[in-house]
Batch of 2 targets.
Target 1
Amino acid sequence: MRRKSQLRKVFAWSLLLLAVTCIGILISEVAFARAGGGQGYSGGGGSGRGSRGGGGDLEIVWLLIRLIIYYPHIGIPLTIVVIVLAKKGYIKGEDTYVDYTIVKASRVKSDSFSKVALTQLKQRDPAFDENFFIGRAKKAFRLIQDAWTARKLDKAQAFLSDGIFEQFNIQLAEMREKRIIDHLEALEIVSATPVKFQSDKNFDVIHLRIDATAINYRKDEKTGKLINGSRSVEPFAEVWSFMRKPGVKTLKKGGLMEGQCPNCGNPIQIGRLSKCEVCNALLRSGEYDWVLTSITQACEWSVRPDRAVPGLDAIVAADPGFNMQHIKERVSVMFWRKAEAERIGKIEPLRKIARNEFCDSQQQWLKPDQSGARRFYTGCAVGAIDLLGVELLEPDDNAFAEVIWSGIPSFLMPGKGIETAGQPINFRHVFVLGRKHGAKTKLESSLASSHCPSCGAPEQTGNENECSYCGSVMNDGKSEWVLDAVVDRSDPKVKEILDRLSAASKVISDEAHAKAVAKHGAKGGVAATQPLDDFGISGIELLRWTVAMMLADGHIDNKEMKMIRDLADKRDIPEARIQQIIDEFKAVIDPVVHVMQTSKIAADNDLLRHIARVALADGKLTTEETDMLKTVGNKIGLTSIDINMMLKRERNAIFQESKDILRNIKR
Ligand SMILES: [Zn+2]
Ligand SMILES: [Zn+2]
């Protein structure tokens, strides 16, 4: 009996050993099967294992059943161990599979975005020929680069909207004045790919990313001395945004980019007439051809979702042609004209676009100080123009637009050249626009925002406020928005007005909501996570926030530095910019407060989601990364639990998006 019981023990232990070995195989099978599962995993070597795993599963179950029956004191605990281990292995396998999918999708993301953009565009215009369009855009790209070096827009202006034309003209004038040449040679276009398509009832927009290499530096016009840049070939990337009216069909022949009337083919004169002299077609209305409305460095580019603007619904109801693009173009022209007026010390550039009262009050800033020096900003750059609100009033409606910009403090002593001081400074200003109550937007002149609203004559900068062609007063706001005031964003008066506007629009939306609920019955439940647009934030902004958060604990470690480099790589941020940003944040006491004060975007949930995505880019998340998110989360009123939940949701959202991307790219 004793022997028998000893034998039993030996048998039991051998069974246990065998079982443990089998469990080991089982666990690795579960993990592996998920990693490759059904996604056409091409790593190789995975196919043989599946069948062996299947046999293993059955054997082990059989073994466990027998153990439970004959040796319950071993069988039962062992079964529990097996279940726990198998579950752990499953979760780990699931995790590996999610990581794998996210990383795999990130490699083909840009192809997928481009495919989506083209598909959407072709739904609007089935005849759209991307190769023809890209070919035209490449030629236009060369024209602009050459014009920039030559400091003359002559040949490269037919396809520019007024907003960008004025900006370039003023920037080129400043370069001439500062005696700087932006030298470019050995230009090679590497690729041109659509990255995003947007459309609303007024306009279609295609954003085209152009990758190129060139030798590019700024030099002194006389001495040839290098000011900045490099004398070796380097890559750069820009995003070009083209607009046209919805429903316009693709041109089969040359148009604005070729310097021809897109309607009749007549060569376009340099004078920037709004109409073709032969067929009278409105050239840059977007009715016949794409018009270029902006050029942005890839790392600075973003398509920010238009926020709910208080008063927008009301003005669109009163003026159906009212559109954001027109306001942005118009404010852009105002901004550049104002910068130019300050630089040249004359009010002329503003005369026809700003009200008399504003021009008069502005005069004092243009005069030299006691030492004879005039102060202004050069090297200006606009980060964003956003409509904050619209107020319908008698006798004039008002629109409030925020301009986030930077400029280098500069001064001019009589008889000397322009002197500039140090780094650019960032500003947030609100441009207050006025227009007669009841006036209507001319949709067709939305992109011709500096032309005479009465007769369409080209931009004029004389000292009179009348159009020199038709004699109508241009700055009275009778038919077009004019500049009433420029105030600092932090001005309490601005806050008061905006609070009033959003309170008024909240009442309206609450009423609408109450009505909708009354009609359809209240629908409870948590809203699903909204899709997040990768391009909703620019690479630079994202890097600024990431760096600020990393520096919250005073230093950036190697792992964090790798994360920064990965982000920079993905979003085309040059090495010099990375260093500049790190230095900037190291110099301030509280990096998070600093970024909140200087950022173009609000610290909201979407921003946290974007930052979480930087951390989740490789699928995994370290404790430091989680802590970092909690630091910023707490500042905007989110608890650690909220952040943990958000991370979980975000990882899942990225996983779902990644699956869509992989599916889309296969199609
Ligand atoms: Zn024509
Ligand atoms: Zn006129």
Note: The longest strand covers residues 180-199.
Target 2
Amino acid sequence: MKLLGKYWGYAVAFVVVYGWFSGSLGPNILIVLSVVAFLYSLFQAPVWCCAETRNQEFCRNNAKGVLMGCWIREHRWQKLKWFVRRSAWGQLSRRLLSGFNGIAASFSAVGTLVSAAAAVITLIVKTV
Ligand SMILES: [Zn+2]
């Protein structure tokens, strides 16, 4: 149960994928579930912090979500600054993608964002 408490967002993402392929979930439900799983990836999923430490290495403390840093406050600021600066994205994604949790969280963030957008488009197409 503790494992589920930490990784519940991936279960939601899995339901989203299932919903798309089976066609059993309506676009409104898919939007809600996609957004929930997306926010989970950004703020809850267990990943490495990945901020840069003083000796030019990257921080491997546990962090919650792709967007957040570890308990060190400077790291959180550093990551936020990176997200605003497009040129730093390559570096950040390389670091994130070097660990399994980072890969899972990054893919789930991108996937659920695409899914949410697709569900919104589906909804618009249906209602027009
Ligand atoms: Zn850190």
Note: Residues 2-127 form one domain.
